[in-house]
């Protein structure tokens, strides 16, 4: 049984490694991440995780495939990965001084079977000054991250409070991931 991580996110690979899981192959998915009109953040996140899993090429029947999607939600608004610095600044000012939610959906596929779980967390971001936003943007840490920040990096200085799953916010909720991999018959914790 091979484990295929259907993700190009270095965070997801590192989080898996932290529980001793090393995929046999890593394949970045190639899907259209455009939200449907008036699509709600949780549904969007679930749909993307599922679609990433279905888009994996060359999967053998006995392979276990793991994919995920992380979406930052400000109310009903979806904040994806910013296209550029200007969009990142817009997202950070929108998040400033408020609470938002972070969803990470994980999808697992094994033969004809499919599993899906969503981790939901809440995050409070302090009121950010122009100087703080500009200094953070200068670090480039926002690039490729939903909502334009990474809680595992310098932006953690802006976050006084979270509720939920830290690994889920970073991109792969390890409790749910372990449960799903075990459901699919992939050994976690039980290897010699
Ligand atoms: C909110 C938040 C997101 N992120 C990252 C995790 C994800 O990599 C990214 C959200 O984008 P995703 O579309 O979920 O993932 P991705 O494009 O990086 O990788 P792939 O689709 O190939 O699996 O944001 C952090 O690293 N830290 C955070 O605090």
TrEMBL record:
Enzyme class, spelled out: hydrolase
Keyword Transferase: no
Catalytic reaction equation(s): dTTP + H2O = dTMP + diphosphate + H(+); UTP + H2O = UMP + diphosphate + H(+)
Cofactor: a divalent metal cation
Annotated site, Important for substrate specificity, chain positions: 11, 70, 152
GO biological process: nucleotide metabolic process
Main location: cytoplasm
A Pfam family annotated for this UniProt entry: Maf
NCBIfam families: maf
Family: Belongs to the Maf family. YhdE subfamily.
Purpose: Nucleoside triphosphate pyrophosphatase that hydrolyzes dTTP and UTP. May have a dual role in cell division arrest and in preventing the incorporation of modified nucleotides into cellular nucleic acids.
UniProt protein name: dTTP/UTP pyrophosphatase
